[in-house]
Amino acid sequence: MGTALVYHEDMTAARLLWDDPECEIECPERLTTALERLQQRGLEQRCLQLAAREASEAELGLVHSPEYVALVRGTQALGTGELQTLSGQYDAVYFHPSTFHCARLAVGAALQLVDAVLAGAVRNGLALVRPPGHHSQRAAANGFCVFNNVAIAARHAQRQHGLHRILIVDWDVHHGQGIQYIFEDDPSVLYFSWHRYEHGRFWPYLRESDADAVGQGPGLGFTVNLPWNQSPGPRGEDPAVLPGRASTDAPWPQVGMGNADYVAAFLHVLLPVAFEFNPELVLVSAGFDSAIGDPEGQMQATPECFAHLTQLLQVLAGGRVCAVLEGGYHLESLSQSVCMMVQALLGDPAPPLSGPMVPHGSALESIQSVRVAQAPHWMSLQQQEGRPSSLLLTGRPEFKAAATQDVAALSSLLDQPRLNPTPPVRTAVALAAPDAALALPSDVLCEEGSAPQEETQAWARPHEALAQDRALTALGKVLYLLDRILDGQVSSGVAVTPACAAAATLDVAIRCGLSHGAQRLLCLAVGQLDRPPDLTDDGRNLWLNIGGKEAAALSMFHVSVPLPGTTGGFLSCVLALVLPLAYSFQPDLVLVALGPAHGLRDPQAALLAALLRGPAGGRVLALVDEESTPQLVVVLARVLHGEAAPSLGPFSMASPEDVQALMQLRGQLEPRWKMLQVASEAGGPGSG
Asked: Domain Histone deacetylase, which positions (predicted)?
């Protein structure tokens, strides 16, 4: 299955016919520029291209009143003066004689995409549409939006396809109040929106955009608002209400949320709740006015960040992700961000995120406020509500001293050049012997090459476990595949190792990776695998063991945690520890080693591998103990190739022991690895 791109050139017909500085940014060039960039990068050609159809009036009626649909239909016969008068009755809206046709195409494109995904014709896709929709309400246009494209698509998925759980993720910089109003009492639709809010002083200036607006009646907890705020200016001024939708004359600094803030919001708010909700479909209100350069949002997130966000969503709902364009008014930023999202939908590795991954204090305050507001409704947030104890550091002076040196070592490395090849092969598998029975994707390469015998023997010499021919042969294949990843010929891979040589092979892989060009290497070791004793804490390697006897942080770069026994405990370990550490460390290469008695079920191993593609730009090498099932090799190869990870199954609460272990590690590591934080250091209760 592939990726659909739904579009129709008629959606460029509507344009502003009079002078209105507020509305002129919603222009046809938003679509044409994005489409041209997709074509230039060869991305459109890789998608299944679908021409949008018009939605029927019955389909519009899934959300909108008959009277409102009739009013918009009537705009086709109005003159310019009448259109301007009618537009003035709404907030930040303009009508054109082609608006009804364009808006029906926008809805129809979203419906076609949902139908194609749920019928299994494609795995995911993007509807490139205008006008946008998430502000539109049952009987009112609002904020450039005429019909609510995503809300209608959700109702269509329920009525026509029988879905019971739909997640809507709205990353537009403005609050999609139209979607919220439509579903605020509906527990079958989970609506998540982050938006520039500034304590109610940013458009649309609504009290119900704040974190404590969590839904109504049976829908309590199914509206999740994450408002981006900013503290008053350095002189403590009380900011005035901002004129218009986005003022550059505000008396305080711009909100300016960046890559770290967006990723932290996903890891600490959206994904825990989404996994517990277990959606059957993910709809994305994909507004790119939340990207850098946009005059509306004035945020700092780079286009690459949206590839990462898309990848994180693809681990939900079996990868069934339908994105529908909303805002985005800086043409270059918009078009680049659209391309990044489509690349991720196609399964391409996300480029590494640049700059230190340190969330803003105001972003952490927002994250904490929404976690507090939502905790009564979600077990996944309740099990993380304990505050990490700073007392754990008091009795560990040796940890403090080592960490001070570690921070200096890490800081000096963050600015060094990153490995960022464009591999011709996305995924390769190195087996001990060819196995035609493995159901691998057709374009996954079965690697038959091996490192030169002399090189392999030199690396193996210090290890008795690698003296046997079988272990030496497997090591040669691991080294060959590792070199192919590091020189940019292959993005990711899976290699099988003998159980008796698993630890020795991992030791060689770490040393070889560091000596052959990786600046920072993350090793996630699962099972009975000890850290090589002479591996130095020089900032170049981070060792994380899942399956240790106890939770321990022997240094900033040596962390161990027991394998949680429940779905909720495992997800907390991954989302609140593994991924924040990985994104903070920003590795060039990730080694995932599944050693003897690793204890992971195939879906758990697949989820780890899928999520770790992001921090390292797709450069992941999984080492699998040969005693694992052959199916595990297939599952890992598929997720590293960009396919969806299998479901973990029903959510179950983490055990008190697992919660305590996670709290202990966060208490030790949060001050150093900032992506672990869920509240500002200067915040109130619960800050960490």
From this structure: 25-345
**Tally of CB atoms within 10 A around 415:** 9
Token readout for 155 is 């109702």
pLDDT tens per residue, range 643-685? 999 999 999 999 999 999 999 899 899 989 999 999 887 543 3
- CA angle (395, 398, 403) in 5-degree steps: 110
Q: Which secondary-structure segment (H or E) carries 45?
A: helix 43-46
Question: Under DSSP, is residue 571 helix (H, G, I), strand (E, B) or coil?
Answer: helix
Question: Would you state the torsion angle of the CA atoms of residues 615, 616, 621, 624, taken in this order, to the nearest 10 degrees?
Answer: -10
Q: What pTM did the predictor assign? A: 0.92
Contacts of 386 (CB under 8 A, 6+ apart): 659, 663
489 is written with which tokens? Answer: 């010929």
Residue linked to tokens 């969503």: 313
As a whole number of angstroms, the distance between CA 103 and CA 114 comes to: 17
Q: Is the pLDDT of residue 392 over 50?
A: no
Tell me the two tokens of residue 653.
Answer: 């609460």
- Residues 77-136: pLDDT tens digits? 999 999 999 999 999 999 999 999 999 999 999 999 999 999 999 999 999 999 999 999
* Separation CA 466–CA 345 (nearest Å): 41
β partners of residue 623? 495, 593
* pLDDT: which is higher, 461 or 415: 461
**Average pLDDT of the chain to the nearest whole number:** 90
Task: State the alpha helices, DSSP H only, in 207-345.
Answer: 259-265, 271-277, 303-313, 331-345
Partners of residue 522 on adjacent β-strands: 542, 590
Determine the straight-line distance between the first and last CA of the chain, rounded to whole angstroms. Answer: 43
Q: State the average pLDDT over residues 346-365.
A: 94
Reply yes or no: is the peptide bond before residue 131 cis, omega within 30 of 0: yes
Say whether 205 sits in a helix, a strand or coil: coil
Token representation of residue 450: 């091996």
Neighbour-count burial for 575-613, b at 16+ CB within 10 Å, e otherwise = bbbbbbbbbbbbbbbbbbbbbeebebebbbbbbbbbbbb
Residue with tokens 């246009």: 141
CA–CA gap between residue 367 and residue 229 (Å, rounded)? 11
Contact 358, 163 (CB under 8 A): no
Task: Indicate if 135 belongs to the active site.
Answer: yes
d(CA 415, CA 407): 14
In the CATH hierarchy, which fold is given to the domain comprising 2-235+243-373? Arginase; Chain A (3.40.800)
User: Which residue is catalytic, options 8, 96, 135, 558?
Assistant: 135
Angle between helices 99-118 and 66-74 (to 10 degrees): 130
> Please, are residues 303 and 342 in contact by the beta-carbon 8 Å criterion?
no
Q: CA-CA distance, 667 to 677, in Å (whole number)? A: 10
Q: How far apart are CA 438 and CA 436, in angstroms?
A: 6
User: How many beta carbons lie within 10 A of that of residue 112, not counting itself?
Assistant: 21
Residue 270 phi/psi, 5-degree rounding, is -65, -55
Q: What beta strand segments (E) does 26-128 contain?
A: 48-51, 122-127
Nearest CA to 520 out of 400, 642, 640, 415 is that of: 415
Q: Where are the domains of the chain?
A: 2-235+243-373, 421-551+588-642
Per the DSSP assignment, residues forming a β-bridge with 621 are 493, 591
